[in-house]
User: What shape does this take?
Amino acid sequence: MPIVRRCASHPQSCLALLSLLTVLPARLPAQSAPQSGDGDTGMSMAGLYGAYGMQREASGTSWQPDTTPLDGSHSMQGQWMTMLHGYLDVLYDDQGGPRGATETISTSMLMFMARRQLTDGAFGVHLMISAEPTMGASGYPLLFQTGETANGSVPLIDRQHPHNLLMEAAATYSRDLTAASSVFIYAGPAGEPALGPTTFMHRLSGMDNPEAPITHHWLDSTHVTFGVVTAGYVWRDFKLDASAFNGREPDQHRYDIELRGLDSYSARLSWNPAAVLSMQVSSGRLASPEQLEPNVAVRRTTASVSYNAPLPGEWWQTTLAWGHNSPSAGLSSSGWLIESAMKMTAAQTVFARAERVAKDELFLPGTALNGENFTVEKLSVGYIYDFLHLEALAVGVGGLASSYSFPAALNATYGYRPTSWMLFVRARL
Assistant: This one.
C-alpha cells in the first residue's frame, strides 16, 4: 500500500509525532463537572482568561461552546495544571481533474498548555509544534486552495502549504476584577491574534476532517503569526479582545521564526449566550500579508457561530462562518463555510463541510485569467472509525470524498466536475 511504503521510507515524518503521543500520560479520571443547562461540560478545570470552565477556550484567545468536550491528556503537577493535545494523520491524497495530483503525505500538530492559579488570576503557557515541514515547502495537493508560496517567487495554487515547525509560543496572564469579570494579556513570538473563528484544526466541527478549508485565507489564516500581543476584557459570557501583530504570513522557510514589527491590528467580540452556543464578530487590517505582494494590505472581517449539541455520551457540533477580504489593490471577495461533525459512538464519527468562496489567484501572474474572480463551491463528506484506544490516545482509519462546482470558464483547466478523495490513518489525543 502507498501509505505503508511511505512510512517505511520516511519514518521520521510518519512516526515522529506518533512516538511522542504513545508515551504521553494517561487521561486522568473525569472529575465532577458543573452542569451548564444542556449536559456535561467535561472536566472541572478553570479557564485561562476568566471565571469559566476551560471547555470554553480554543485556539489562541478564541471561544467555543461550553459543552465542547475537553480532549487531550491532562494532569496536575503541583500548582500547575497541564494538557497535551495533538494528532498525526497519514494520508493518501488523490485530487481529481487535470490540475489534481496524487501523493501520500502526513499532517500533524502537538500542543502543550499549562495553567497556574494565582491569588487573583492565572498564568498560562501555550506551545504548539508540527512535523509538517518534513513534507516539503509545497505542502500537499488540494484543489482550489491558494495562498503563500513554496519558493518565494510564485504562489501556491491547488496546494495547501505546510504549517511551520513552531506554530505557537505564547504566555498569558489574567487578573480577576470581580467574580464575573477579568482582564487578560496574551503575547509571544508565535501565536494567534484576535481575528476570526476558532482555527479549523481546533474546531470540534472540523478537526476530524484532515484537509484544510479552501476558505482558510478568508477566516483563520492568521492562526500562525510571528509576533502578537493581545489584550482582552471578559464580563460574564462576553469577551472583547484586541491585538497588535505581525501581518506577514509565514514564508517558505518552515523551520524558522520570522519576527517583524507589529504592523497590523484586529479586534473581536465573542459571546456565549448559552452553553451550546458560541458567536464572534471580528475585523482587522493585515499589513502586507502576502510575501509576493508586499505593498498590498488586506482588511479582513469575519463572523461565525458554533453550536454543540451534547448527545447521550457523545456530541454533534456545527459551525457557520463568513469571511470577507478587501485588499488595498485588487478585487474584494467573500467566503462562506458550514461544517458539521457528529460522534455517533465512541468509535465512529461522520463529518461534512460545504464552502463557497470567490477565488482570484487560480492562475499565475502574467496569464490571461490571473486576477479574475471565480466562485467555487466545494462539498466534502467523510467518516472515521477509531479502532484502538490506548488510554488518552485514539487510533482510527477514515476517508472522505469531495466534489466541486465552478463556472464553465474553468472546465478547460479543471475538467468537468472533478472529484477528490483521501484515505487516512489518524492518531489523536
Notes: Residues 11-21 form the longest helix (11 residues). The chain has a mean pLDDT of 90. The domain at 2-428 is CATH 2.40.160.10 (Porin).
